[in-house]
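Batch job 17 of 40 flagged for manual review because the log was empty.
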Amino acid sequence: MKKSTWALPLLLTILISSCGPSHQVTSSWVSPEAKASAKTYNTIFIAVLSQNQSAKNIIEEDLAKAARARGYKAIKSSEVFAPNFTKDQADKAVILAKVRELGCDAILTSALIDKTSETRYNPGTVAYSPYMGYGGYGFGGYYGYMYPAMYSTPGYYTTEKTYFIETNLFDVASEKMIYSVQSKAYDPSTITAFSRDYCEAITQQFTKDLRAH
């Protein structure tokens, strides 16, 4: 099948395919127009809306690699705009004009919309080594044996963070949102791991939604 015959359902399956249980999709939405349309897309503008430039670069690169592997042209926002373009709240018209100038027909955005932290106390543990021969001991003998036979590790506090992410796909010509996925990540160990798990989670959701339509 030639790429030119691929419609929206196949466009939405371009994302990365590695497994990550720490990321969970919470909801998704497909526009009625997208369900009914056979419109094809060829060039995707990828924009991770984050002030963390390192995270932005890693996630945009992962998404772009996946798109290119499927035969699409992918253009990252970090290749086009200065690192602080979202911080400066660049005019929407300026951004869209550039996206259209580059020949993009779809825009994929990713944004952190909320973050929560929860501190938990993990109680210590106590180990016991039994000895059945102290039946005739007085307190001194019993204490002398039992004190070293029992030991503990102290309790400690941990802080768990949950990140809430929204991923949207827009049609450039109409500027309308055609797909949206909300997801959350639990305590990602590194941005690389987060990017992998995030992309896998939304890829699975795209596939599930598109099978249903």
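Reviewer: the log was empty due to a logging misconfiguration, but the result itself is present. Residues 134 and 141 are 8 Å apart (CA to CA). Unflagging and moving on to job 18.
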